[in-house]
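[job 4471] stage=fold_predict status=RUNNING
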Amino acid sequence: MSSTTDKIKGTANQAAGSVKQSVGKVTGNTKLQAEGAAQETKGTAQKAVGDVKQGAKNLASQVKKGL
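[job 4471] inference complete, writing structure tokens
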């Protein structure tokens, strides 16, 4: 996946996870709360992967310019 795709999917997972957690809290559904927390964490990790990929691309670009 591209860095942008990772960031978009990560943001979507964070949002969906947050909603699940909120619904779980309101309804008293601890399983839904846990699923939401896990999904939000997954989204955070996806965004981090996207950031690392973008950083690597930027570094490669700078190295090319320097050569």
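[job 4471] summary: The helical segments are 3-27, 30-66.
[job 4471] exit 0
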